[in-house]
Amino acid sequence: MRVIAIVAAGLSLASCSSMSSMDLFKSTPVEVELQLDSVPQGADAVTSAGPGCKTPCVVKVAAAENLSVTYTLAKYEQETVPVQVIKQTGAAPVLDPNPVVAELRPAVPPKKTRKRAPAKRAPKAAAAPAAAPAAAAPAAQANSPFPPPPPPQNR
Q: 71: part of which helix (H) or strand (E)?
């Protein structure tokens, strides 16, 4: 009976010690403050690690692996800036760059395609009888310095 109790106690202690040694290898990532800004200010900045804010601002991110920050602002092109985690022995990790600043470029508006209006056509004049130009000719000739043409001859 004592042997079973000693074995059970030994197994429970062994499992506790193995769990704590596993926990020693798993360290929780250190949170580091990341300053975010943009030109112009007021952009929405979102990190690939999750947190985001409206610039200028500061967010806390886990410094476990490299990340990126994506900036969006109406009427401006979206911009993504990579951020590296630089691990130092004996000190907290450093983020590079920090502060992260994005210069946003104005978005180029899409070209508008205009529909062409149909070409305006001059109204067609009503066809006049053939004799009408001849009737108008004497009035025009009255002001002309040239002599009138001879009348047409019938054969």
A: strand 67-72
> Which residues on neighbouring strands pair with residue 86, listed in sequence order?
94
* Separation between Cα atoms, residue 90 and residue 86, nearest integer Å: 12
Among 36, 134, 125, 31, which Cα is nearest to 85's? 31
β-bridge partners, 39: 103
CB of 30 closer than 8 Å to CB of 63: yes
Q: Which of 37, 123, 124 is nearest to 73 (CA)?
A: 37
- pLDDT for 97-122, tens place per residue? 999 999 999 998 777 776 776 777 76
Please say whether the beta carbons of 47 and 80 come within 8 A: no
Q: Confirm if 69 and 98 have CB atoms less than 8 A apart.
A: no
Q: Which residues of the chain have pLDDT under 70?
A: 1-27, 114, 117, 122-142, 144, 155
Three-class secondary structure of residue 77 per DSSP: coil
Cα–Cα distance measured from residue 152 to residue 130, given in angstroms and rounded to the nearest whole number = 14
Rounded CA-CA distance 33/35 in Å is 7
